[in-house]
Amino acid sequence: xxxxxxxxxAHGDIPMDxxxxxxxxxxxxxxxxxxxxxxxxxxNLCRSCASDLxxxxxxxxxxxxxxxxxxxxxxxVLDRHGVHGLQRNLLVENIIDIYKQQQEGKGESTxxxxxxxxxxxxxxxxxxxxxxIYCLSCQLPxxxxxxxxxxxxxxxxxxxxxxxxxxxxxLSNAIDAxxxxxxxxxxxxxxxxxxCRAVQENAQRAKQGLAERFDLLYAVLEERKAVLLEQVGKExxxxxxxxxxxxxxxxxxxxxxSELTDTAVRALEQSGAAEFLLASKGLITQTKDAAKASLGxxxxxxxxEKMDHFALSTEHVExxxxxxxxxxxxxxxxxxxxxxx
Length: 341
What we know:
By secondary structure, the chain is mostly helical. The chain contains eight helices and ten strands. The strands form four sheets. A three-stranded antiparallel beta sheet has the order 4-3-7. Strands 9-8-10 form a three-stranded antiparallel beta sheet. A hairpin with a 4-residue loop joins strand 8 (133-135) and strand 9. The longest helix is centred in the middle third of the chain and has 110 residues, at 160-269. The chain is rod-shaped, with a radius of gyration of 64 Å.
């Protein structure tokens, strides 16, 4: 049923949400502000909202006038008194007072249906109208006059407070998500810093290990080099010693032969035949024997002086070293190189 312009369910219990909705002005979307007027179509308006609506339709303020109900579009005809000639709905005003008292007694806020306040943003199109509704279609806050007559008259609107709460909650959730995202980014940043330190430490250990392995290779090469040089030196010393022994023997033989030669030459220089013949026979024998002996002297074998057998082949090792890389393949390559030998 309809009572004083309010819809009352048959069972008599009015849900709070429904009551708040019915106590809201269809123009400003806030709780009715006294005085409240009732239109012939039984819909209610704040008198101030009705006056704004009337003035927008009758800018030259002729006596009387017409405007349409913003709820049902019923054409309301005013007399010369204008909106002041409309009947006040005292019952609705009393219901508003009772509602406010009950809400204050419960300690609840009536912010959802708060009266008009001053010092709020005003509409640019209607300078005397405060921004009090939100256009859902255009996603913009606007005023009631824009909804009734302006560019938002065909749009869906909602109370500013409801959208405020919704978007405030949405922004709060977005901030929480952003803070959480920042936390994840901070954790990733710490991970990257830890990873950088780990890379540097691991690289330093790898360099140190690599240097140690090469130092070991150098040591092995130096040790092997010393062994091989010792072998060459040993054979060198043996051959030189043998050659010097032969040279000493040849020297001694040469000295004896030279002395015998000098003796034989002096014998030839003697003028007396008897004296010569006394020594010549022995000298002839000694000279022939010495000459024959020189032909049978021990000599080194052919190529005795050569050291070619000490030539070292390192091509396979060089090949392995040139291909040396990180991993376990080095041992296999070295084994393959040994098998090729």
